[in-house]
Amino acid sequence: MSTVLHLSDPHFGTDQSPVEEALLQLAGTQQPDLLILSGDVTQRARRHQFDRAAAFLQRLGIANTIVLPGNHDIPLFNVFARAFTPYGNYMRAFDDLEPEYESEDLLAVGVNTTRPGRHTVGTISPKQIDRISRRLRHAAPEQLRIVVTHQPVHVIRPSDEKNILRGHLDAVQAWASAGADLILGGHIHLPYVRPLKEILPDLPRPLWAVQAGTSLSWRIRSSIPNSVNIIRYLASDTPRHCVVDRWDYDHERGSFARTDQHVLHLGDTFTAR
After folding, report:
1. DSSP assignments along 54-120, one per residue
2. pLDDT in tens, 165-176
3. Rounded CA gap, 34 and 37, in Å?
4. Residue 140 and residue 180: Cα distance in Å, rounded?
5. N or C: which end of the chain has fewer CB within 10 A?
């Protein structure tokens, strides 16, 4: 059994100490093998905010991590830094803009969808789509294959259509054809799980969008509390599936509690074509 803790948008600088302590407790109880943080690590891309984020991830004690930048991790008000060293502070804390992780059961690959000149708008290039597709095709047949972006590839509210990843349709089609199982994202502080056949009915295999809410920030939206996802996968299970649990922060109890569960049916083991 492999366990992934998926969190997003902690926005260090607007984080809340009680929620941090509750997340530390949850991680200690669940013992995840991999941490995935899908962007907006900080609120304003300041060095001390990245330092706090890195220190918190160390406290979580999860050996394997994938951390991606979000649009908030690029300077907004420092025009010089935004133009010439947009990822300078990010790279001091995390040394890879597009990290990946591989184990016997898992392959997780990150793709940087931020663009310094476009503020909140996320974009994916044909070159990035191709790189991720080639990596997916080299996965082992039994691995759970995860792609991580910041901006979502699928939204469920009309008000979020402006936040959807530019180039998402080409990316979803290509990654499904290459064997992807899940696309994890954040950005809109709204947790949900949806089959991507809702937008592309002709996909060659099941592919799921898994969105995380804001893990630590007080900048919650739609009255949804701080939340994270825990994903579990056992390669030997048949039919092939994974389980996504959503955990919300309960202010009265001061802890995270499981509030939703999705059993995601995956495609058959995939062999590269």
Report:
1. HHHHHHHT-SEEEEE--GGGS-SS-HHHHHH-TTHHHHHH-S-SS-EEE-SSEEEEE-----TTSTT
2. 999 999 999 999
3. 10
4. 12
5. C
Instruction: Output phi, psi for 175, to 5 deg.
Output: -75, -35
- The full length of the chain comes to 273
For 246, the token pair is 């959503």
Q: pTM here?
A: 0.96
As given in the structure block, the two tokens for residue 214 are: 């804001």
Q: 99-118 burial, b if ≥16 CB within 10 A, otherwise e?
A: bbbeeebbbbbbbbbbbeee
Residue that has been written with the tokens 């502080």 in this structure: 189
Q: Which of 211, 148, 186 is nearest to 41 (CA)?
A: 186
What is the model's pLDDT at position 229?
98
Which helix (H) or strand (E) is 146 found in, with range?
Answer: strand 144-148
82-127 confidence digits (pLDDT tens): 678 899 999 999 999 999 999 999 999 999 999 998 778 999 999 9
Tokens representing residue 252 in the block: 């009265």
* Phi-psi map region of 39: left, alpha, beta (phi>0 left; psi -120 to 50 alpha): left
Closest CA to 134 of 154, 113, 109: 109
